[in-house]
Amino acid sequence: MKQLVYLGILGILLSSCLGDRTVDNIQPTSTFEERLVRDQEIIDAYLAENDITAEIEEPNGLRYVLHEQGTGESPDENSNVAVRYEGTLLDSTVFDASDSIAFSLENVIIGWRIGVPLLQEGGSITLYIPSVFAYDLASPGAPVPPSANLIFDIELLKVLE
């Protein structure tokens, strides 16, 4: 009986020492809005440190730099598109890139569905995507950790039928 009491006390002590498990200081029970605000603060600090002036897409708060508007057709969030892109973490680690790939915007992260329709064919943009508009608390695999804010340089090559 004493052993069970000691094990119970040990369990309580260990759990209090471990505290709430977090991912990059984000409580798993935090709301979407709380995580979005935190992500935007991190991205805004990154932009300030790197002397980057970004636009803010309202109402969602996605930060972006439009390099070239383009002159062709503009996609919507359900369009099939061909793009050239490079994805990096805020520490400049490149985690994905393609010189030409086609897909439906319905099948990509929310940040792309918000940002790519800002372009017309031939246009280019840099998107600063909060983790909640990317993979949120999950990770698609190394080297992208959970709760990662992402940067994508995207050129819209063509809106496909």
Would you give an account of this structure?
The chain is α+β, with helices and mostly antiparallel strands. It has one domain: Chitinase A, domain 3 (Roll), CATH 3.10.50.40. Helices cover 25% and strands 30% of the residues. The protein is built from three helices and six strands; from the N terminus they run ααββββαββ. A six-stranded antiparallel beta sheet has the order 1-2-5-6-3-4. The longest helix is centred in the first third of the chain and has 18 residues, at 32-49. Residues 1-26 have low confidence and may be disordered.
Relevant terms:
single chain, 161 residues, alpha+beta, Chitinase A, domain 3, 6-stranded antiparallel beta sheet, 3 helices, 6 strands, 30% strand
CATH topology: the name is Chitinase A, domain 3
Number of domains: 1
Radius of gyration: 20 Å
- Share in β-strands: 25-35%
Low-confidence spans: 1-26
**Major sheet details:** 6 strands, antiparallel
N-to-C CA distance: 72 Å
SSE ordering: HHEEEEHEE
What level of helicity do the residues show?
Answer: 25-40%
CATH class category name:
Alpha Beta
How many DSSP E strands?
6
Mean pLDDT: 86
Strands in their spatial order, largest beta sheet: 1-2-5-6-3-4
Secondary-structure content class: alpha+beta
The number of distinct helices, counting runs of at least 4 residues, comes to 3
Shape-level CATH architecture: Roll
Overall geometry comes to globular
